[in-house]
Amino acid sequence: MKLHDLDHWDRGSPQMKGTPHFKEEQCAPALNLEMRKILDLQAPIMSLQSVLEDLLVATSDGLLHLIHWEGMTNGRKAINLCTVPFSVDLQSSRVGSFLGFTDVHIRDMEYCATLDGFAVVFNDGKVGFITPVSSRFTAEQLHGVWPQDVVDGTCVAVNNKYRLMAFGCVSGSVQVYTIDNSTGAMLLSHKLELTAKQYPDIWNKTGAVKLMRWSPDNSVVIVTWEYGGLSLWSVFGAQLICTLGGDFAYRSDGTKKDPLKINSMSWGAEGYHLWVISGFGSQNTEIESDLRSVVKQPSILLFQFIKSVLTVNPCMSNQEQVLLQGEDRLYLNCGEASQTQNPRSSSTHSEHKPSREKSPFADGGLESQGLSTLLGHRHWHVVQISSTYLESNWPIRFSAIDKLGQNIAVVGKFGFAHYSLLTKKWKLFGNITQEQNMIVTGGLAWWNDFMVLACYNINDRQEELRVYLRTSNLDNAFAHVTKAQAETLLLSVFQDMVIVFRADCSICLYSIERKSDGPNTTAGIQVLQEVSMSRYIPHPFLVVSVTLTSVSTENGITLKMPQQARGAESIMLNLAGQLIMMQRDRSGPQIREKDSNPNQRKLLPFCPPVVLAQSVESVWTTCRANKQKRHLLEALWLSCGGAGMKVWLPLFPRDHRKPHSFLSQRIMLPFHINIYPLAVLFEDALVLGAVNDTLLYDSLYTRNNAREQLEVLFPFCVVERTSQIYLHHILRQLLVRNLGEQALLLAQSCATLPYFPHVLELMLHEVLEEEATSREPIPDPLLPTVAKFITEFPLFLQTVVHCARKTEYALWNYLFAAVGNPKDLFEECLMAQDLDTAASYLIILQNMEVPAVSRQHATLLFNTALEQGKWDLCRHMIRFLKAIGSGESETPPSTPTTQEPSSSGGFEFFRNRSISLSQSAENVPPSKFSLQKTLSMPSGPSGKRWSKDSDCAENMYIDMMLWRHARRLLEDVRLKDLGCFAAQLGFELISWLCKERTRAARVDNFVIALKRLHKDFLWPLPIIPASSISSPFKNGKYRTVGEQLLKSQSADPFLNLEMDAGISNIQRSQSWLTNIGPTHHEIDTASSHGPQMQDAFLSPLSNKGDECSIGSATDLTESSSMVDGEWTMVDENFSTLSLTQSELEHISMELASKGPHKSQVQLRYLLHIFMEAGCLDWCIVIGLILRESSIINQILVITQSSEVDGEMLQNIKTGLHAVDRWASTDCPGYKPFLNIIKPQLQKLSEITEEQVQPDAFQPVTVGKTPEQTSPRAEESRGSSSHGSIPQGEAGSSSMVSRKEEDTAQAEEEEPFQDGTYDCSVS
After folding, report:
1. Is 1038 left (phi over 0), alpha (psi -120 to 50) or beta?
2. How far is CA 153 from the centre of its chain?
3. Which of 414, 702, 1238, 1269 to pair with 678, CA 20 to 30 A apart?
């Protein structure tokens, strides 16, 4: 054994330190290695350990040598292991057995300072712990303990902070032991092992554990195996990374990589790096043999890690952020002022370069933020640490973020720096000497705008507590400094108190307050209380975290003032994984001077400590108050590594009743989550974390490179944000413990969360899976309790069916035995009008009941869906009913290849309409169907049923239901719904109407039908802008414009438009210039009836406020002064007026009398359908609404050229009579159109008269009337866009008063009176 001296000189002179440019002078120190002494121990050395001033050497001959660093043994003899007694614990100290074989020696050992002893692995695989019973290190004073069950140990690693000994085993698992304080025995804490569930193909094929290394901050351990691979675990066994699965183990083409074999590894400073020497690689067995020589060389690899801030600075100043720190950058999740915070997490593997993101911040107080900002994206906000600061202060040791997530402070080797996320600027010490003179020892925390930190002042050799203001310059002149007695190890802020834990095992509480000394704002710090903990804490280094909390075992304290922020009730101390709580002692006299200064008031002492939990890695609490969510906000949350999480939940009496004295006021509930927790969102019932994600990039490299680079074997690693719901675990744990009332209170307080339905579903699903698949009978099943619990919420029906649909069929009977019969649940859905949920229950019924039952329920649902116009559901129901009938309960029927043409005559256009029930044109929204849509209607399974061989009972059954619905729609004059129904379900309307022509498809009341269509299609009733009444102009030379217009088809809002600025809303968005429909011959005919003159007076329109229709929207007030001034009186020879005038009148009237463009398209579609089906009475009604004489003419031609039922003609005639009477009394706007079609109606009368004797029926051919125009002439008018017209009956009596109307009718000329229908039939 050779001992060397190591000297180093710093090339930069020490005097340069004070100058501003001394950094440029700094460089790596020169090293000098010089041999001091050679010792011959006469056997191979197996292990070396440094123990304070000595060196402990284990040799293969079973001896332990204790050697001084000078190379002297100081006369101490080597200890033979065979003389050291071993027992199960220290209580049976001298009775221990000795190692009973001669060639025993130590294979691996490691010294544990906090346990004062050695963890050892012997060559036969046994493991143990050797400790000196007294201070002297001799064979007589040593004693060993060992666990009985470990016989395959290979290596050992010790965690001093948590007093853990990790032993690697041949099986590939790691057994982690701790020492029982009372007996000194070795207790198994937990195991680190891969599970068959996660790694099915590798979990038992890793080989023996080869190396283990705890990180410098003692928060994670890295493990590697004989056959390669790396894994990273938290202190108490949560697995963070493993390279034996996923992208680490497989290439992008799916081939398996050989795991990376590791010969040696060591952590870098602060755990940001892992240095690895890879084994003599067999990584590339597929590569050609001549390349293998290149691969033989071992490589040095460097892995970078980032870690949670709480591994090193577990201060409680911010519960709302996840903050990760790397060697030169920080990752935080407050992209939009989210809420989060972190525990003693692992480092997370990363050769990471996550993308940057913008960070707008919201000023949210300390209240919980919205979930959308929190979970809206998966990217981190990355902050590069100032390179100026890093140059002389690498590595970063601590960091902290303020409550609002807007400011970050970092601490390196010396001094500190802080950064504002709003201004994106760093602030460093102006005086570099001040920075280099302070070493932060106990972490740092934010208090409002101040940074509180515990540091050591190098010049004064003094421990200090300092407070710096963020907004002022970073300088000691602006700091508030308080001297401390001992070194501060931990620091935390709670409300307006600072709590510090010091190296002398004492806890000190300070009050902190803002002070304004003239221009400078500082913070004042005063000592409040000191608590000595030396009798409870064996070593100060073992304290992981210390914090003040408002948690107490007595909920009564907070019951009085639940709305106020709760005070500091207890100290939580994590002592090597053991959570200890000290509450304030309220047993003594409670004297409170109300007027005294709270800082001078004597604080209550603390009770002796109580152990709350074991294996604790992190603790979260909050002092926020919310009366609605007291359970979640007053709870204490613990992260326990591999054991999952625990919550110490308060139990509240309902309605503030007095709690039972025998009931506990808090309960500790364990639960498992799938992520490593870094923050708890209290109100939102969420846990946030970070996870290592991988991206493969080996495809960028070709295989025939000189070698496949080692870095290509490792995928690119990025850190992703994750989150998980935990509420269902807590509810379930409460129900298990018969605390259903508490579970209900908790669930009701969270019922507004967006994912609450998912919580109920998860709980039901997990309990069902466990109990229904259990091999043993369950004495006290939980499922009935959970089912009863869920019925308390309105989402009960959805929860049950969603759970069933996601579960195997085999478990359904068990589920519905607990929640109720699916038939009853289906009926409840129908009663609640929740059709989608009912449809889900149908699938359950179909599998659990006979077909007759499911058909009966499906029929019920189908009819309800038809009524409510749920077309998607209707299509599914049709397919479902067919499947039941054909026995294909799972697969939908196949689509036929052939289609039968439509069975009715008519336009060629409809000949190839497909007949489809099961599928729809998915792109057709329910309220939009048009002529073009029918062309591309997809064909479905029902096309087959028109053929002779497939006319099965099922199709007939479905048809009967569809026919019944169509009949109901027609009887209720719901043509729009009928059109939607036919278009959406591919219902063959034409063939059905043909059959129903004389029954359901007959118009019983034309007037009601007309009114209903006006309303359904938002079509305005026709109006007359002016009417004939007596005129003040006595000369008689003028005819009234109103009278002409009454007899023509056009009306004239344009004149009114020019008149009055006070007219109500005119929709200017219309395209005014549409094609002119009927020829001007009609206008001329109507306006050239002889020389009779009438006096004219232009009367104003009265308006009922129907402001969307243009016609009714152009009114004048009675008192208008425009009447004589600006109205143009028209000469009696109306047709000689310039053509543009009549064009304008016509166009404007067209606009006023039309509904929306969509309605027009729909009406024309229906018109074609009815025309094909021969339902002429409906065609007449639609023709009346559209007010197109060409349609009426066309119908007349059909009546003359084909055998039309005489009864239908009679019906049309009587219907038109009724419409005429209605127009005369209620809607004079229809009169002009009725007058235009007068000649056709006379022909109709003649036909019906001839048909009084049916046997003498002959079709009468009548020549076309002059007014007849091409049937298509009107259709191009549909191109202009129209606003939607509200359902209005405002057009009828509002146009003219009853007296004016009578006058107008009395003054009509003879030919019009001859043409009225009353006169034409005897």
Report:
1. beta
2. 47
3. 414
Residues paired with 689 in a beta bridge: 677, 722
pLDDT category, 142, cuts 50, 70, 90?
A: confident
Distance, in Å, from the CA atom of 638 to the CA atom of 1050, rounded to the nearest integer, reads: 82
Enter the tokens of residue 561.
Answer: 């003032």
pLDDT at residue 921 above 50?
no
The chain-wide mean pLDDT, for the chain, equals: 76
Which pairs with CB-CB distance under 8 Å and at least 24 residues apart come from 751-760? 751/793, 753/371, 753/684, 753/685, 753/727, 754/371, 755/725, 756/727, 756/795, 757/795, 757/798, 757/799, 758/725, 759/685, 759/725, 759/727, 759/728, 759/731, 760/728, 760/790, 760/793, 760/795, 760/799
SS (HEC) of 61-86: CCEEEEEECCCCCCCCCCEEHHHCEE
* DSSP codes, 1071-1134: ---PPP-S-HHHHHHHH---S-------PPPP--S-TTSTGGG----TT-TTHHHHPPPPBS-G
What's the whole-model pTM score? 0.76
DSSP 1148-1196: HHHHHT---HHHHHHHHHHHHHHHHHT-HHHHHHHHHHHT-HHHHHHHH
pLDDT tens-digit series, residues 390-442: 999 999 999 999 988 899 999 999 999 999 999 999 999 999 999 999 999 99
Q: What is the pLDDT of residues 747-776, one digit of tens each?
A: 999 999 999 999 999 999 999 999 999 999
- Helix 871-886 × helix 953-971 angle, to 10°: 150
Strand, helix or coil at 413?
coil
Residues 6+ apart with CB under 8 A from 217: 270, 271, 307, 311, 312
CA distances from residue 606 to 183, 352, 586, 587, 614 in whole angstroms, order as listed = 29, 46, 9, 11, 22
In whole angstroms, how far apart are CA 1034 and each of 1027, 1031, 1093?
Answer: 18, 7, 11
Q: Could you report the per-residue pLDDT of 625-656, keeping only the tens digit for each?
A: 888 888 999 999 999 999 999 999 999 887 66
Nearest to 415 by CA among 429, 400, 398, 430: 429
Q: Scan for tokens 């409870």, then name that residue.
A: 536
User: Looking up tokens 């979640």, which residue turns up?
Assistant: 632
Q: How many residues belong to the chain?
A: 1322
In one-letter notation, the amino acid at residue 575 is L
Closest-CA residue to 1064 (of 1111, 1003, 1015, 1120): 1111
- SS3 of 1044-1060: the string is HHHHCCCCCHHHHHHHC
CB 332 within 8 A of CB 286: no
Residue 621 φ then ψ, to 5°? -145, 170
Write out pLDDT tens, residues 674-691.
Answer: 999 999 988 889 999 999
DSSP assigned state of 993? H
- CA gap 989, 868 in Å, rounded: 19
- Give the contacts of 242 (CB within 8 A, at least 6 positions apart): 194, 198, 199, 229, 230, 231, 232, 248
**Dihedral pair phi/psi, residue 105, rounded to 5°:** -150, 165
Please determine, for residue 126, whether its predicted confidence score (pLDDT) is greater than 60.
yes
The CA radius of gyration of the chain, in Å to the nearest whole number, is 46
Better-predicted residue by pLDDT, 923 or 591? 591
DSSP summary character for residue 1320: H
What is the DSSP code (8-state) at residue 355? P
Q: How far apart are CA 1169 and CA 428, in angstroms?
A: 82
Place of tokens 């691969």: 295
Asked whether 108 and 58 are in contact (CB, 8 A), the reply is no
Residue 1031 CB-half CA count within 13 A: 24
Q: Which two tokens stand for residue 1255?
A: 């046997």
Is the predicted pLDDT of residue 994 greater than 70, yes or no?
yes
722 vs 383: CA distance, rounded Å: 20
Q: Is residue 481 scored above 80 in pLDDT?
A: yes
> Residues 156-213: pLDDT tens digits?
999 999 999 999 999 999 999 999 988 889 999 999 999 988 888 888 889 999 999 9
